[in-house]
Amino acid sequence: MTSSAARVLETRFTIVGGGFSGLSAAYELSKAGYAVTVLEADETVGGLAASFSTKGERLDRFYHHWFTNDEEVMRLIDEVGLSGDVVTNPTNTGVYYANTIYRLSSPLDLLRFSPLPFWDRIRLGLLALRVRRVRDWRALEDETAASWLRRLGGERVYKVVWEPLLAGKFGPYAEEVSAVWFWNKLKLRGSSRGKDGAERLAYLKGSFSHLAETLAARIRAQGGEVRCGAPVDAVEPLPAGGWQVRGPWGNVESSHVIVTTALPLVAEMVAGWADAAYLAKLRRIPYLANVCLTLRLDRPLSKTYWLNVNDPDFPYVGVIEHTNFESAESYGGEHVVYLSKYLPHTDALYGMSDQEVFDFSVPHVRRMFPAFDVAWVKGFHVWKARWAQPVVQKQYSGLIPAEDGPLLGFHVCSMAQIYPEDRGTNYAIREGRKLARRLMDGLAGDVS
Q1: Which pLDDT belongs to residue 7?
Q2: Where in the chain is the domain with CATH 3.50.50.60?
Q3: Are 56 and 332 in contact (CB under 8 A)?
Q4: Measured CA distances, 151 to 51, 110, 147, 179, 365 (Å)
Q5: pLDDT tens across 356-398, in order?
Q6: Backbone angles phi, psi at 89, to 5 degrees
């Protein structure tokens, strides 16, 4: 046996978290012959991209789509043989403002956007062009999104279009969000538009968990282990080297650990040995929670796929009618609508029961869609995520902890470390595979 082959056999990885970063790292490592154990607290893999059963195909708990330029996920989908399940369609976008829904999917729609005077509509269109010309995001790190958007488009455009979206997404942190975060959002959406200006998005039939479950199956087929229902309490260094990961299910030992959960949860796992400075790094980025109400209706609510809500009195930041993108036939003829709200976990809405969330939401839905009747509702689901959105503040690059921890063999690969892009499955896959390859290259270097 060669020394490199022996090193592969003696090196074991434990990966905490069965979302896309953890699964992608485990897939890459197990494919190369390394022993891998994935530990996921939930009863199913996928993390924020987990799904639930409907009358037809499985459905994402939280709404998801990919942009046509999301190369990492498309490459992985092709690699595991799921390309035939990807659907790409043009979508339509709207804005709810002053009790009116405005279509806002094309340059012509923008010219017709009457809440802004004509010259402000032109400024809004020029803003998108100026955003595309930004080549170095580092030049924006010292500026907030609020000040940057005011400077580019003027006060009236900011008040009508951008301020409500920032407030709806980030609540108490709206004035602190970095210009880099907003720049990337605008750049990403702009680059997914076709020649006609219409946005095209991609979706995986059978839900995003179809890919997560396929990855888990590949990991197992490659000799790895994927355990669900396995929450982790502690990650501890062993006296003789290596690591022990503990939970109510027992413990597992390995030479390397990759933790992919939210950074404050990482801090809890390592609090027994990490120093105060490292724990402070893991705890200094604030997170928002999310409440997502999913309605299953016997008819469509609207003709719009993605409706941005620019009304501070409406409790949700977005209304996403999924079956205006993926056919209702996939879900037994039911029409699926997501209502999403990012909020502090201390907010009253986050603490409500499922029925309370539904009852609270119905009058607001009826105000937006006056014809709506609760008799249309064939079922509803409420999903909550405590660690849904890291708050990207100024100079965020200096806030992110390094992937390599303070002790040898300990690594962190979380969505809060994705930057300058925002968290998302495409970048989670990129970062998970990249970290796995880097670690394998390092191990190969040790042998040589």
Answers
A1: 46
A2: 3-64+207-285+394-447
A3: yes
A4: 41, 20, 6, 11, 34
A5: 999 999 999 999 999 999 999 999 999 999 999 999 999 999 9
A6: -140, 155
CA distance 395 to 138: 9
Distance from C-alpha of 47 to C-alpha of 54, rounded to nearest angstrom: 19
Query: Which are the contacts of 243, defined by CB distance < 8 A and separation ≥ 6?
Result: 14, 235, 236, 237, 253, 254, 255, 256, 257, 409, 410
> The pTM is what?
0.92
E-only strand ranges, 182-324: 200-204, 225-227, 234-237, 243-247, 250-254, 256-259, 287-297, 306-309, 318-321
CATH 3.90.660.20 occupies which residues in the chain?
201-205+287-390
Q: How buried is residue 195: exposed, middle or buried, by Cβ count under 10 Å (0-12/13-18/19+)?
A: exposed
Question: How do residues 17-48 score in pLDDT, each as one tens digit?
Answer: 999 999 999 999 999 999 999 999 999 999 98
pLDDT, one tens digit per residue, over 271-312 is 999 999 999 999 999 999 999 999 999 999 999 999 999 998
Using the predicted structure, report yes or no on whether residue 235 has a pLDDT greater than 50: yes
Confidence of residue 190 (pLDDT cuts 50, 70, 90): low
Spell out the residues 6+ positions from residue 118 whose beta carbon is closer than 8 angstroms to its own: 111
Phi and psi angles of residue 337, each rounded to the nearest 5 degrees, phi first = -130, 130
What's the pLDDT band for 9 if we cut at 50, 70, 90?
Answer: very low
What is the Cα–Cα distance from 192 to 171, expressed in whole angstroms? 27
Residue 78: alpha-carbon gap to chain centroid: 21
DSSP conformation class of 248 = T
With tokens 């538009």, the residue in question is 193
Q: How confident is the model at residue 135 (pLDDT cuts 50, 70, 90)?
A: confident
Within a 10 A sphere around the Cβ of 295, how many other Cβ atoms? 25
Q: What is the largest CA-CA distance in the chain?
A: 75
Q: Rounded to a whole number, what is the distance in angstroms from the first to the last CA of the chain?
A: 15
Q: Quote the tokens at residue 116.
A: 């802004």
CATH 3.50.50.60, applies to 3-64+207-285+394-447: yes
Q: How far apart are alpha carbons 408 and 39 in whole angstroms?
A: 20
Q: Name which CATH class applies to 201-205+287-390.
A: alpha beta
